[in-house]
Design brief:
Blueprint (H helix, E strand, L loop, with lengths): L2 H16 L3 H15 L2 H12 L7 H14 L1
Amino acid sequence: MSPDKLVRMANQIGKFFASQGPAVAVPGIAEHIRKFWEPRMREAIFAHLDAGGAGIDPPVREALEQLRQKAA
């Protein structure tokens, strides 16, 4: 799956959770990606994040960083 498609999907998840405020949205985004994305998808979005993360919305970026820390 292309990085552009993963970014679009992740940002859509972020938009869904946005109305709940950052304190709920960021963990919600992270949990959704952890539960429903294949490991290959997560690896690809983390690689894109490491390459600068172009196009990733700030709450999604924060959620991905939290998810990565919990996985480590």
